[in-house]
Amino acid sequence: MDADDFELGADFAAERDAADPLAHLADRFYDPDDEWYVDGNSLGLLSADAEDALDRAVSEWKDLAIRGWTDADPPWFHYGERLGDRLAPLVGASEDEVVVANSTTVNIHTLVGTFYDRAEGTKIVVDDLDFPTDHYAVRAQLRQRGADPDEALTVVESRDGRTIEEDDVIDALDDDTALVFLPSVLYRSGQLLDVERITEAAHDRGILAGFDLAHSVGAVPHDLSRTGVDFAVWCSYKYLNAGPGAIAGLYVNEDHFGLRPALAGWWGHEKETQFEMNPTYTPAETAGAYQIGTIPILSSAPLAGSLEIFEAAGEATDSGATDAADASAAAAAGIEAVREKSLRLTAYLMFLVDERLPECEVGTPRDPERRGGHVAVEHPEAYRVGEALKERGVVADFRPPNVVRICPSPLYTGYEDVWEVVEQLKQVVENREYEEYETRGGGVT
């Protein structure tokens, strides 16, 4: 939807919400009273579906005790694999290529370490706008292998402080490069990188390609298998709405099945002989090999409920799901519908900032092909602006040096929400309400 298609005024927003086929899904979420919640790119809201799934797991623990590993529905022993099956349509992968396991940072450690060990080069290409944990983990893996991170890490620099040019990434790939590891969406500006182009360029040079999908999974469809991405990681507490500290996920292309993970643990052992307690580790012949410790059921169960909403989103625009195959198709259709709404909402948000907030600037790419699910609204006093917004009941977040991130998460945010958030922002900026607040201290932002 182009800016020419939008209109100012609350009536237009209400009309768009009335025509939205996904609007009813917001009723499945607990939205804090008297707030406009636009921070779903940091932590998604709790849904009744996620709550019910957690309650079921607690009840299974209460009623079945240890028998839950075999008698729960699904059995806890295969919980990571079954959730991976349901996530696979959202990232365009086969079921065996996806598993939920560990945390995002742990998954970076094990996958970067594993693929670096099998690569022929010595350098890893990253970018200078990446989320810090990615660099921490990559540097640690290089140090463990006796490499100096300052020499072995090739950091692609931003030209404008907001975005990364794919041309610069490709130019950084050389004969010494082992792998490239980048985010799919930059956490500050919301730029969506061309995963397919980067992967193709890497493979043309014999280089492996991995991605951190933390800021795209659940908001942007991916096609990892067809694209040939070698590995990927993500969290599930943002757009997947699985709760604070929820279990993470990972993808490994089937061409790499059988590799021995750099971080081995008993939960990644082949299931058939896992309880024979052999002292020799035999990795599973799927992405399940990258599980390390026992799956935390109570931190995983909410994801099972959350995925039902993506399936429902597909049903709202496609045929209903009656079996596992239909559920997979519904999930695939659901993420496409979510992406379509996300693009409309972020375009509308940028339109309103342009029209109503001359003191602010949009730092997110306008091109839908280069935009993730949130918008970076820039202001020199962004931290204090964010504090003033909180006082008005707008829950967004701040990222240094000058960004208020606003995320119209499409499963529970509507046009009227976006209109109201911009109205509150306009009052804060025009009236200089932010001047009542202290400059940034420490703490969570």
Short synopsis of the structure:
With about 450 residues, the protein is an alpha/beta fold.
Characterize the structure shown.
- The chain is α/β, with parallel strands linked by helices.
- It folds into two domains: 3-47 and 328-436, Alpha-Beta Complex (Aspartate Aminotransferase, domain 1); 53-303, Aspartate Aminotransferase, domain 2 (3-Layer(aba) Sandwich), CATH 3.40.640.10.
- The chain is 40% helix and 11% strand.
- The protein is built from 14 helices and 13 strands.
- The chain has helices spanning 10-18, 48-64, 68-71, 79-91, 104-118, 132-144, 149-152, 166-172, 195-204, 224-227, 297-317, 324-356, 382-391, 415-430; strands spanning 36-37, 98-100, 123-127, 153-156, 177-183, 208-212, 231-234, 249-252, 361-362, 375-378, 394-395, 397-399, 403-406.
- The strands form three sheets. It has a seven-stranded mixed sheet, sandwiched between helices. Strands 9-10-13-12 form a four-stranded antiparallel sheet.
- Helix 10 (224-227) links the parallel strand 6 (208-212) and strand 7 (231-234).
- Helix 4 (79-91) runs parallel beside helix 11 (297-317), helix 4 packs across helix 12 (324-356) and helix 5 packs across helix 6.
- The radius of gyration is 22 Å and the shape is globular.
- The relative contact order is 0.17.
- The model has no long low-confidence stretch (mean pLDDT 95).
- It comes from Halorussus limi.
- Catalyzes the cleavage of L-kynurenine (L-Kyn) and L-3-hydroxykynurenine (L-3OHKyn) into anthranilic acid (AA) and 3-hydroxyanthranilic acid (3-OHAA), respectively.
- It is an enzyme of class 3 (hydrolase).
- One of its GO terms (molecular function) is kynureninase activity.
- One of its GO terms (biological process) is NAD+ biosynthetic process.
